[in-house]
Write a structure and sequence with these properties.
With 120 residues, this protein is of the alpha/beta class. It has a single domain, classed as Rossmann fold, CATH 3.40.50. Helix content is 48%, strand content 20%. It contains five helices and five strands; from the N terminus they run βαβαβαβαβα. A five-stranded parallel β-sheet has the order 2-1-3-4-5, sandwiched between helices. The relative contact order is 0.19.
């Protein structure tokens, strides 16, 4: 079973993603900002994918992705309501492998996660 870390400061989004991913058979780890995400990645060697918000307290998603990918070969997908091309480009330049726009379809999310974790 693949292990997915959700990094988001919204309890609503966390619960929604956790429910969808667990129903898809994934193990889920939660972090509420970029700093906690980095700490949990360091504590867990078996995380297959990180799904992260961009706008969070303490450390934003872009800075978190840069730090994570400089320390470890990890796939990170950004999840945001901001879908303009500048944000998507900035996410990719930060090291994100994909970008998911909120609101998302649960079946499409599971398909994206399935493909990302199979290629891991």
């Amino acid at each position: 079973m693949a292990k997915i870390m959700i990094v988001d400061d919204s309890s609503t989004i966390i619960h929604q993603l956790e429910f969808i991913l667990q129903s898809g058979g994934y193990e889920v780890i939660i972090a509420r900002d970029g700093l906690e995400g980095i700490k949990k990645l360091e504590e867990n060697d078996d995380i297959d994918l990180v799904i992260s918000d961009i706008n969070m307290p303490n450390m934003n998603g872009f800075d978190m992705v840069k730090t994570m990918t400089s320390k470890k070969n990890i796939k990170v997908y950004m999840l945001s309501t901001e879908g303009d091309t500048r944000m998507i480009k900035q996410a990719k330049e930060s090291g994100a492998k994909g970008y998911i726009i909120k609101p998302f379809n649960p079946d499409e999310l599971l398909e994206i996660v399935g493909k990302a974790t199979k290629a891991a």
